[in-house]
TrEMBL record:
Coiled coil: none annotated. GO terms for molecular function: endonuclease activity. Keywords: Endonuclease, Hydrolase, Nuclease. Residues 444-516 form the OLD protein-like TOPRIM domain. The keyword Ligase does not apply. This is Predicted ATP-dependent endonuclease of the OLD family, contains P-loop ATPase and TOPRIM domains. It comes from Epibacterium ulvae. The keyword Disulfide bond does not apply. The lineage of its organism: Bacteria, Pseudomonadati, Pseudomonadota, Alphaproteobacteria, Rhodobacterales. Residues 1-385 form the Endonuclease GajA/Old nuclease/RecF-like AAA domain. Pfam families: AAA_15, OLD-like_TOPRIM.
């Protein structure tokens, strides 16, 4: 038995969206302001605090209808809803769930629970002032539990095929349920992102959040021990707590005897003066107060330790989170509900990237140890995403500030897009799954992306972006390219594998690549055709699969069509037709058409490269550089470049430290201008 689907209507950014749940762990990812926190808040409000709904919980598009509400208004259109679709099979114990099953047809495997927060129209209209301005202010300040009705219904939509949801088309078929019945069926726990962890500097020097939650942990175990004693089922924890109680009782007896001696004279005078009976001072040590006030969590050797508030926030957060999970585990086990749902908001909070990576490896295993548990994780961490299964990921997407959020099933929805590519689609999708590393996972949270081919571009791109911002100061007064949320990926010639993925998550992307020209050569001996690299002016083909894919190259067997396309490619006239993806590759500049980044860079910076030939690393055959004339930079770069990464590092050093003003190839600068504006 598990929650198979969660549907939400009319709550903040979540106006009409549906989440397909996994039986174990579901990962909610997305950029900022896409409704991840709202999702958690809605679950908590409906399942734990239904009286906490307010006017601000209603989405902006329907607020005007609320403000102008009258006798004719249809409150069904203004209702916040949460629908849980629950799947079960013949192996499940349906004793509690049967209260929500309206038809016990043995072939059915689903039932539904509807939560609604609706406006009490009659009551609200009676209370509204006549003045329009006062009316608006009244609704904004007072539309809360007093004028809102929260209810729970069971319904069975088996065989329903109408476009209108069953719970709207057949209101008379809904059966209202008590909230206590929901609590009996499902145990919901949430661990919020805003956890109570703080360093000593931030908390007055005396805060001990771990000790505080340790006290809470002990109290829970203490209560559980009392309950198990009533059932005569004291477990290992109960035995340990009983030993602690016994020790404290012994200490109470010893302290009582000492108190009698210390306070004897005072107590005798008090009895005589106040004419009281037998007045005593006794010891009453409470174990939970002892932990809270006289115990602390430390790390290091016992004789040479550091207190908990000297730990970094990352460690505090992880320890706090683990204790919270233990508390939740105890609650799930003790209540033993048929459905258990745990929501953890941003487990990566306060932790550095390496700790996120380690934690991501451990969290799934830790959660899986809790029986009958479904877990929802919301995260901004590419490290946690990269350690998750594709099948677990759900992507919250919002294409513009005025559009509502949609929740996409990353695996099924994206695989369908790759299937549209035909025979290559399956292989490309497999590549994408294997390539979901920490870097590529950043695309889930990026506003824009830049794909580059190799190490040289990766080293120099930050410098080029900085130069772009300086040269375009009028356009970048408010926000330079360097301050935008851009993810840079080194993907080589595999950019085409990302095309459906980029379309799926709606990220605008600049692909910086090489034209990689080749020419057709037929062997006189074998008659076979090969395509060796060559200067652009001599070329007839390209080996760059990215350009062929995005610029829709025809089949090379169609010689005339392909020749026309290749000419357009060289001239920069081949269009991708993609508004979301832009190709930047070498075009003619200063009378020379480069084939790669290196000869493009050297051709426009030859004088400076010659002047610094003795200090730039990665160069060889310096005599060839000094003797060079003409414009065959393709051959020159091949002769003088040794280790390209060393050369790029030296170029960067000379710019940052020595103030050298290198020129940026025009195709790269034009690409940066495009990604900045779009």
């Amino acid at each position: 038995m598990y929650i198979e689907q969660i549907k939400i209507e009319n709550f903040r950014l979540l106006q009409n969206c549906c989440l397909d749940m996994r039986e174990k762990t579901t990962l909610l990812v997305g950029k900022n302001n896409t409704g991840k926190t709202s999702f958690a808040v809605l679950l908590e409000k409906f399942l734990e605090r239904p009286e906490n709904f307010t006017y601000t919980d209603f989405p902006i598009p329907i607020r005007q209808k609320i403000l102008s509400i009258d006798d004719e208004a249809n409150v069904e259109d203004l209702t916040i809803r949460l629908v849980l679709r629950i799947a079960y099979d013949e192996t499940d114990n349906l004793e509690i769930l049967s209260k929500f099953m309206l038809d016990l047809d043995p072939t059915r495997r689903h039932t539904n629970i509807l939560f609604e927060c609706s406006i009490d129209k009659r009551r609200l209209l009676r209370a509204l002032p006549d003045d329009t301005k006062e009316r608006k202010k009244f609704i904004e300040n007072n539309l809360n539990g007093k004028f809102l009705n929260c209810a729970v219904f069971a319904f069975d939509d088996f065989g329903h095929t109408e476009e209108t949801p069953y719970y709207l088309a057949h209101r008379d078929q809904l059966e209202e349920k008590e909230r206590s019945e929901v609590r009996e069926l499902m145990n919901f726990q949430v661990i919020h992102a805003r956890r109570n962890v703080a360093s000593s500097e931030d908390a007055g020097g005396g805060a001990k959040p771990l000790s505080a939650i340790s006290t809470k942990f002990f109290q829970k175990r203490n209560i559980a021990t009392d309950a198990s004693e009533d059932d005569e089922t004291v477990g290992p924890d109960g035995d340990n707590i009983e030993k602690l109680r016994s020790m404290l009782a012994s200490i109470d007896d010893q302290l009582g005897k000492q108190y009698a001696q210390v306070f004897g004279g005072f107590l005798k005078n008090s009895r005589d003066f106040l004419e009281l009976g037998d007045l005593k001072v006794v010891s009453n040590i409470q174990s939970q107060r002892l932990i809270e006030t006289s115990s602390q969590v430390i790390y290091g050797e016992t004789d040479n330790f550091l207190p908990e508030n000297h730990s970094g926030l990352g460690y505090l957060n992880i320890l706090y989170l683990l204790l919270q999970i233990e508390l939740c585990r105890d609650d799930f086990v003790r209540k033993n509900a048929p459905l258990n749902l745990l929501l953890i908001e941003e487990p990566e909070a306060h932790t550095h990237p390496q700790m996120q990576y380690v934690f991501a490896e451990k969290i799934h295993g830790l959660i899986s140890q809790i029986p009958k548990l479904q877990t929802l994780l919301t995260t901004h961490s590419s490290h946690i995403v990269s350690k998750s299964n594709f099948e677990d990921i759900r992507y919250l997407s919002r294409l513009s500030p005025v559009e509502p959020v949609t929740i996409k099933n990353f695996h099924t929805d994206l695989s369908a897009k790759y299937e549209e590519l035909g025979a290559d689609g399956k292989a490309l999708f497999q590549f994408l799954k294997q390539y979901l590393t920490i870097n590529s996972a950043e695309l889930f949270f990026a506003s824009k992306a830049v794909f580059i081919e190799g190490t040289t571009e990766r080293i120099l791109l930050p410098l080029f972006i900085e130069m772009h911002d300086k040269e375009n100061v009028d356009e970048t007064t408010e926000s330079g390219l360097s301050s935008q949320n851009i993810s840079v990926l080194e993907v080589g010639a595999n950019a085409r594998a990302f095309a459906p993925f980029l379309e799926f998550i709606g990220v605008r992307t600049l692909v910086i690549t090489d034209i990689d020209t080749t020419k057709s050569v037929v062997s006189e001996k074998t008659g076979k055709t090969s395509y060796p690299a060559c200067p652009v002016a001599e070329s007839s083909h390209t080996s760059n699969e990215t350009l062929k894919h995005f610029l829709s190259a025809p089949d090379p067997k169609e010689k005339k069509d392909f020749s026309d396309w290749h000419k357009r490619l060289v001239d920069g006239a081949a269009s991708s037709g993609e508004g979301q993806i832009e190709l930047a590759y070498q075009l003619a500049e200063d009378g020379y058409h480069a084939r790669s980044f290196e000869d493009a860079f050297i051709s426009i910076n030859l004088v400076k490269v010659k002047a610094r030939k003795d200090t730039l690393a990665g160069l060889k055959n310096l005599d060839a550089l000094e003797e060079f004339s003409g414009n065959d930079f393709y051959s020159l770069s091949d002769r003088i470049l040794g280790k390209k990464s060393d050369f790029a590092g030296s170029v960067l050093y000379s710019a940052l430290v020595e103030g050298e003003s290198w020129r940026v190839p025009k195709y790269i600068m034009d690409g940066l201008k495009w990604i900045h504006k779009n």
